[in-house]
Design goal:
The structure holds two protein chains of two kinds. By secondary structure, chain A is mainly beta. Chain A is 0% helix and 55% strand. Chain B is globular and about 40 Å long. Classes of the chains: A mainly beta, B mainly beta.
């Protein structure tokens, strides 16, 4: 049973527009959520996180929104840039310090 | 300099061979993890270790073993490799005392192909 779901395998947006990546989870015990970005031939790199006690966290062009009642989070990238083209993984964790990852969404930002 | 290094970066081997993947870190973190990534399946946890004397199975540990030789070193072994173990393997570390909380830091990965 997949506890963290990224239902869109891919997303394509124009440079300068907003990119919205979505993630759903089923385990109500998760108390923090992270987004990672991964380029080909590299390991995932941490992008932004949010605690379950918050509903929004912002870092520059990146904002993560959390809707606990819907068990849904989203990553907004504004404005999108070609260098943002990568696979984005949503991850969730709890008190056991393990992360559960979604399958990833390939974002392509077209110039 | 990379904080989390993995060797080798690429490996091609044959069915039945014993393979060891190594991970070293200079971050001083106690917690280390091994994941595999398969196309369309995301990252799945194989084993994790919260300190030198602690080893725990993840969701897909069958066919794998690990050794935590020191705080900085965590190796993954495939005792008898099989083709469905062909994947990208990532090592990661974390330190819950850090400002980033439970963020995990990943190595560059090892691409393993079992023929």
């Amino acid at each position: 049973d997949q506890q963290v779901k990224q239902n869109s395998p891919s997303l394509s947006v124009q440079e300068g527009r907003i990119s919205i990546l979505n993630c759903d989870y089923t385990n109500s015990m998760f108390d923090y959520f992270l987004w990672y970005k991964k380029y080909p031939a590299e390991g995932p790199t941490f992008l932004i996180s949010i605690s379950s006690i918050k509903d929004k966290n912002e870092d520059g062009r990146f904002t993560v929104f959390l809707n606990k009642s819907a068990k849904h989070l989203s990553l907004h990238i504004v404005p999108s840039q070609p260098g943002d083209s990568a696979v984005y993984f949503c991850a969730a964790g709890g008190s056991n310090y393990k992360l559960t990852f979604g399958k990833g969404t390939l974002l392509t930002v077209n110039p | 300099d990379a904080d989390v290094t993995q060797t080798p970066r690429n490996r091609i081997t044959k069915t039945g061979k014993r393979i060891m993947l190594e991970c070293s870190q200079t971050k001083g973190h106690d917690r280390m993890y091994w994941y595999r990534q398969d196309p369309g399946l995301g990252l799945r946890l194989i084993y994790y270790s919260f300190d030198v004397k602690d080893i725990n199975k993840g969701e897909i540990s069958d066919g794998y073993s690990v050794s935590r030789q020191a705080q900085a070193k965590f190796s993954l072994s495939l005792e008898s490799a099989i083709p469905n173990q062909t994947a990208l393997y990532f090592c990661a570390t974390s330190d819950p005392r850090g400002l980033a909380g439970n963020e995990q830091f990943f190595g560059p990965g090892t691409r393993l192909t079992v023929l």
